[in-house]
Specification:
This protein has about 280 residues and is α/β, with parallel strands linked by helices. The chain has 6 helices and 15 strands. The chain is about 25% helix and about 25% strand. The two termini are about 15 Å apart. It binds citrulline.
Length: about 280
Amino acid sequence: MFTVLVRNLPKSFTRCLRESKSEHIDVVKAEVEHQLYVKAISSNERVFKVITIPSDEACPDCVFVEDNAVVYNGTAVISMMGAPSRRDEVSPIAKVLSQLGQKIKTMSLPATLDGGDVMIAGEHVFVGCSSRTNYEGFVFLRESLQATPSSTPLSFSFVPVPDALHLKSIISYAGKEVGFLAADTEQGRVVANHIQHHYSHRHCTQPTVRFVPDATAANVLRIFDTIYFASHFPRSQDFFQNLQKELRGKQINFVGLASPEMNKADAALTCCSILVSTGPSATF
Ligand code: CIR
């Protein structure tokens, strides 16, 4: 079972960090998208509880809680956010994670890391080397997670991500039955190669990597047997329909969520939640 943390959008969301400011962000539409997202997660039968943290007007990006902490097997690594304007977001998140019984490890400068750069696939942990996450952040995360009691040792890899906000802006892990979903772009392929190399170097079975037509749609959120995917990209919608057909019989549910306003803030589906497993760490 999971407890899921989400955070409300502040009205200041229009001032969030973003690559291109050319498109107007409609906060009301973004709020509706977020409510539908929370509703969809709340109705997952493996979600025991959704905790909503109040927004903070001084933190325009505070809805993107994924970046604030990495939770694994009873340990919560609290990020030193890569963007200085986001650093005040983390304390209420750390407080709730501590109340949930997580062992708190707080990162400090010069280490920086955003949770959007951390992709955990079973016992393999991939960390994006992006403009937000540096080598010191990677080492802090590795040491913190290696100290957690775990039946299988974790293996870590630092993955260059020069041209995207975060690693998970271009790739995500959708579970054992599906494998990785990567953006069908040059950078998506470079990252996919890196990941395959990681597995072959460790003599592990090569995972499947599938390429998704729209980069943002390569970010899916998996909670137990449900895959939440971005449903507002027509070409990627075909991709997910075909994937659904291919996986018929494997008891995986697909739930489409449209979030075009959130995408204007350079965000994708995993960004707005933190999953806390109430049992041993969840490996899909
Ligand atoms: C930022 O630039 O930090 C936010 N506007 C978007 C963060 C998206 N988070 C994520 O990909 N994990």
